[in-house]
Amino acid sequence: xxxxxxxDKPSPADIITNAIIAKLEAGVRPWVKPWRPGLGGRxxxxxxxxxxxxxxxxxxxxxxxxxxxARTWMTYKQAQALGGxxxxxxxxxxxxxxKTYSKAVAAPLTGDVVDETRRVLRSxxxxxxxxxxxxxxxxxxxxLGVVPPADExxxxxxxxxxxxxxxxxxxxxRAFYDRIADTITMPAVEQFTTRAYWASTLAHEAGHxxxxxxxxxxxxxxxxxxxxxxxxEMCAEMTAALLGADLALPTAHLDDHANYIGSWxxxxxxxSRAVMTAAAKAEAAAGFLLRATGLADNAPAKEPVREAA
Length: 309
Fold this sequence. Notes:
single chain, alpha/beta, three-stranded antiparallel beta sheet, three-stranded mixed beta sheet, 9 helices, globular
């Protein structure tokens, strides 16, 4: 085991994990958004392409902490190419990517030299559009619109609920996924304050449903030991957060899951890459569900209408 010296520069994984740990220690789950659906959506690149995986959660956290309203992030050069100028004194944040490369290694038994594909985590600096003057108007936050009635679901959310291929039983007062029976149980819609909260809770349980061996086959037990169940809950919450952004559903739900925070902290403090794994698994689960419900090729507008509070 290598112990990093105090003077060592923290890795991108350390920076992101430490920020998430600080939020969790304050009792805040950083992937849960307190505002109404439609106000956020996924963070966007300068091209309008949504960020994925841990970049999505990380840039959400940064934007909320700094009070940024714009969804778009870009490099200094991209801002200049668009006619913008980063304001003096503004601080950049990191976005991450994995660089793939090949390395010649000797096979342990035969000694034959083969090319082995490896991946290394890298980062680059980005600024929020709120930190940049002179950008085209399309990079500014869209103005607030009218809040839909509480008993209505956005169109994409309605299609998600109607097309979800999981077996869903309605009844009781608990929402849960039964891995053995491979079924989801949901309380009746009338037991929720809004239909949107019912749908977002279903999205959470559908996140668990994707982990079945016949689908994405998530297995954390061997790596995370006794914290495996709580870690799976983290993946499901992050899946629901991504689906919330993609389907315009609320994510400030499942308050009873706050008791997992202690387990999540143990996992993240032990392994700085754990949150990267959780985010990647959540992205895979969200993508699986969007494909399964026919929504993967029916992406929402890059700048959805925002809702008034």
